[in-house]
Amino acid sequence: MQEETNQHLGFVALLKSFTKPFWLASAMELFERWAWYGLFAVLALYLTGSTDDGALGFSHIERGEIMSYVTAILYFLPIITGAISDKIGYKLSLVIAYILLAVGYFFMGRVTSYFAVFAMFLVVAMGAAMFKPVASAIVTKSTDKRNSSFGFGVFYMMVNIGGFFGPLFSAKLRDQYGWNIVFLMATSAILVNLIIVLFFFKEPNREPTKESLGETIRRSFKNILEALSDMRLTFLLIIMVGFWLMFNQLFYTLPVFIEEWINTRPFYEAFHKILPPIADFLQNKDGSINPEMIVNLDAFFIIVFQMIISMIILKWKPINAMMTGIFVAIVGIALSFYTNNSIYTVLGILIFAIGEMTSNPKFSDYIAKISPKGKEALYMGTYFLPIAAANLLTKWITGDLYEKFSDKVAIIQRELTTKGITLPEITKEYTKNDFYRDAAEKLNMNQSDMTQYLWDTYHPGNIWYVIAGIGFLTIIGLLVYNAVISRRDKKKV
């Protein structure tokens, strides 16, 4: 009992040890992630959905270009924006970030052309890239050796809370009020952050620098190049591009895949037998569950199970944990695409989340372990490079490959061609929903039967072979990498 009391007092003491800037940074992280994931979780559906539902009706290639290219820029920019923030100060950086984010989110819901949407999403990415390094830097400066580990745990928890509730509210709001409310919600979350930074946040003590802004940016690139000169780090980053490329499909491709091919009503009915109130909350007006709600279970599973998984793999070697986690993630992502049964889709997401929780934290851990003493921050600065590269490459899978092998419209057109049937091109006047309705009528089926017939005939879920193949190549790369590094370390001994 005494031991439990001491542990409780230790926990309370840890919470009290955090300064006001720490809690403000954590709160701002929650609202920023709420806005980002609240939009990003439904963005694929918004870009390709039928125009008569208020969506944009873009092709999957256009969707892939917007989501992949802009997000790649977002993860590359912190190399520059971090240097800018160090120069101009955190408070001004946050104000600029929130203005960019608010403007980008708001007008992204007002424009409809490809180039205008791309431009507004790029504004959002610039704001997010300005925010990312500042939030982490504030937490770093607000903690010390006593509480930094716990502090970053609290900070990461805020990320997942925002990442979970943002899509949850997006799904409910867009189902009731249409697509525009999603962008207003994201804008509102950012405006909360703007109020916090303007009225409550004070600039923390920073060491002044006499460098010009240009010199600061050049030094950042020089530091990154210095870290990348270590081939042990560079090869690891290249290999991990494969993991992030596979990981991205959960958010880029799976929501659209569920929308086009999977009936989520069986999952609702099964879940309703266990927890009726929650199942009813998740249910949309059509009696099923929106795709973003299904995909958002990944964040829920992480919130629930991350501490348990972390304890299980606590003493595992980072490379072994990474390979194990990636293998588990492969099984999960493959199952999600392999079947059109929504219960197996959810099971696949659970398995994927376990793999993600096993591999991703150990990636950061391994970079820290191979960092030379005194260069830990320098090496950790390269963490986002494989994420940026993977986002750039994701367009190939979620755009080109998906449109060729899994796009429902393309498959219907292929089937109609074999039967000598023609329908008008999809436009704003003749929408995707009109096309689905008329195609089913021409094939003498209802839409549900048509979807099942196309699934059985054309196997759109076979895209999982490509996604899983990338994961297996990543594991092979890590096996070779580990063997080479182990042999080199033995020679040094």
What's the total helix number? 23
Rg from Cα: 24 Å
Report the helical percentage: over 70%
The rough form would be described as: globular
CATH architecture classification of the largest domain: Up-down Bundle
Topology pattern, helix = H, strand = E: HHHHHHHHHHHHHHHHHHHHHHH
Give a nutshell description of this structure.
Helix content is 80%, strand content 0%. The protein is built from 23 helices and no strands.
List the defining traits of the structure above.
about 500 residues; disordered N terminus; mainly alpha; Growth Hormone, Chain: A; 23 helices
Describe the protein.
The protein has 493 residues and is mainly α. It folds into three domains: 20-223, Growth Hormone, Chain: A (Up-down Bundle); 230-406 and 459-493, Up-down Bundle (Growth Hormone, Chain: A); 408-458, no CATH class. 80% of the residues lie in helices and 0% in strands. The protein contains 23 helices and no strands. It has helices at 2-17, 20-48, 60-76, 78-88, 90-108, 114-141, 148-177, 180-199, 213-228, 231-252, 254-261, 265-274, 276-282, 291-295, 297-312, 318-338, 342-370, 376-380, 384-405, 408-418, 432-442, 447-458, 464-492. Helix 2 (20-48) runs antiparallel to helix 6 (114-141), helix 3 packs parallel to helix 6 and helix 12 packs antiparallel against helix 13 (276-282). The longest helix is centred in the N-terminal third of the chain and has 30 residues, at 148-177. It is globular, with a radius of gyration of 24 Å.
